[in-house]
Design brief:
With about 300 residues, the chain is of the alpha/beta class. The chain has 11 helices and 10 strands. The strands form 2 sheets. The chain has an 8-stranded mixed β-sheet with strand order 2-1-3-4-8-7-10-9, with helices on both faces. Strands 5-6 form a two-stranded antiparallel ribbon. It is elongated and about 90 Å long. About 40% of the residues are buried. The chain binds iron/sulfur cluster.
Length: about 300
């Protein structure tokens, strides 16, 4: 009996419908973790009840900043460090949008650092995903705001003398309503955390610890991207109730990489408060009803006050 073979299109990627094919091949190096985070985001988009036409992605500059160019939804590739204010403006103009800022540690926490803390303080209703690869990968591997102490980079050839930011602690202290850290190895946990951010109102933050074998792994002798993944597998500990003060990342080989969904709270968003202020202003500026005005006039004529 003749068997009818099903045509298999081997030239297509399973997520092609949400990738801009005309932009592929992408620029990311073999073993880079950014693509894993992007795929987790794409899977979360597909699972979400939010229609794709309401989903928006905003990126800044750097390797991770290229994400906006590759995902097939409304997307904006903004200037260095300015993805968060751009996203804030979008949300204020159209509160129906589900906006995700997808960028790197240098973009979001150096030049964009002030934007991050103030957006979290205001609880702007946006999601922020940060691929943290501990350096400025695109420009040659310079020291950045999350580079751990003692790490070797092109601008710290004898080891970084500064502490890197502990991003979940910073996000929680600044007011984010959902805070998580996963690595590029924890694909399903990351996808589920991103799905959760689509349901939350307010500023959410996910740090994705991500291999950069080209610019960070090589000088620090961490091997290839898969070796960094192996390091994550050996050192990561899931602890949703971790003390955030104590989960800063370190280059020490025996140090633990604590991951989890650490914060999930509710508080009024920036737009909630904005609406409340509008209502207060309208109530204060309201003209008195005719009857009230008459009483007031009579009281004033009698030299009193109503
Ligand atoms: Fe990824 Fe690093 Fe290459 Fe940039 S330089 S694409 S972060 S591996």
């Amino acid at each position: 009996m003749a068997v009818e073979l099903r045509e298999v299109k081997t030239d297509r990627h399973p997520e092609d419908e949400l990738l801009r094919e005309d932009r592929i091949p992408h620029i990311w190096c073999p073993g880079c973790g950014i693509g894993v985070a992007v795929m987790a985001h794409i899977e979360a988009l597909k699972l979400s009840e939010v229609p794709l036409e309401k989903q928006v992605i905003v990126s800044g500059i750097g390797c991770t900043g290229r994400t906006a160019s590759y995902v097939q939804i409304d997307s904006y590739h903004t200037t260095h460090g300015r993805a968060i204010p751009f996203a804030t403006g979008l949300k204020a103009a159209n509160p129906q949008l589900e906006i995700t800022v997808f960028s790197g540690d240098g973009d979001l926490f150096a030049i964009g650092g002030n934007h991050f803390i103030h957006a979290a303080r205001r609880n702007v209703d946006i999601n922020i995903i940060c691929c943290n690869n501990f350096n400025y990968g695109m420009t040659g591997g310079q020291v950045g705001p999350t580079t751990p102490e003692y790490a070797i980079t092109t601008t710290s050839p004898y080891g970084n003398m500064e502490d890197g930011f502990n991003l979940p602690y910073l996000a929680a202290a600044s007011g984010a309503v959902f805070v998580a850290r996963w690595t590029a190895l924890h694909f399903r946990k990351l996808r589920d955390a991103i799905s959760r951010t689509f349901e939350k109102r307010g500023l959410t933050f996910i740090e994705v610890v991500s291999p950069c074998p080209t610019s960070f792994g090589r000088p620090n002798e961490l091997g290839q991207g898969l070796d960094e993944m192996e390091w994550y597998r050996e050192s990561s500990v899931i602890d949703h109730d971790a003390d955030l003060k104590a989960i800063g990342l370190s280059m020490k080989k025996d140090s633990k990489l604590v991951v989890g969904n650490f914060v999930d709270i509710e508080r009024p968003t920036f737009m909630d408060r904005y609406q409340h202020i509008i209502e207060r202003a309208q109530a204060k500026g309201k003209k008195p009803e005719p009857e009230q005005a008459q009483v007031k006039e009579q009281a004033q004529a009698q030299g009193g006050s109503a």
